[in-house]
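Dear colleague,

Following up on yesterday's call, I've attached the two folding results inline so they're easy to grep. Please treat them as preliminary; we haven't cross-checked anything against experimental data yet. The first protein's sequence and structure tokens come first.
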Amino acid sequence: MSGLAASTKHVLPSGVTGTKAANGSGLRWNTECNLVMAWGLTLPASIALAVVRYCLFRKLRVVVLTFLSHRTRTNGRLLSGPR
């Protein structure tokens, strides 16, 4: 064992593909290509999604902190609101 994490979504299709290839029974290359592409795109797509979420939450944090800082400087009252 290599000690690497293995998901059932990776192991099961690999086992079926290996069995079909060994038996010579109806291996569909189109399906296999789709599986390989999905596996190859999972990590880059996850990274891209994480970067987008990080940037959005960081921007939201700055906006919230700026708002709270402004309220603290004005003793809890908004300057544009009624007094």
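Below is the second protein, in the same order (sequence, then structure):
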Amino acid sequence: MRPEEKKFFSRLSEYFRSTGFKISMAEIADSAQFVMGTVCRFFKSKEGIYISLVDEKVEELLPLFKRRHQQRIDHF
């Protein structure tokens, strides 16, 4: 992930939690403190932003799930 995307996601993640999905691309750009052109260059739609945000979180959590699963297997 590019540094600009990481910065964008860190700013946007909390905003999505508080407002939900009913937000415009302009509000997304504003809340993340990016200009609209930058947001549109990286993402085609707010659905694309949301999917990318979810993908990032899955990548972050997947190793934790794998470790937990392995611990359960090792326990038996």
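For the second protein, one point worth flagging: The domain at 3-75 is CATH 1.10.10.60 (Arc Repressor Mutant, subunit A).

Best wishes,
A.L.
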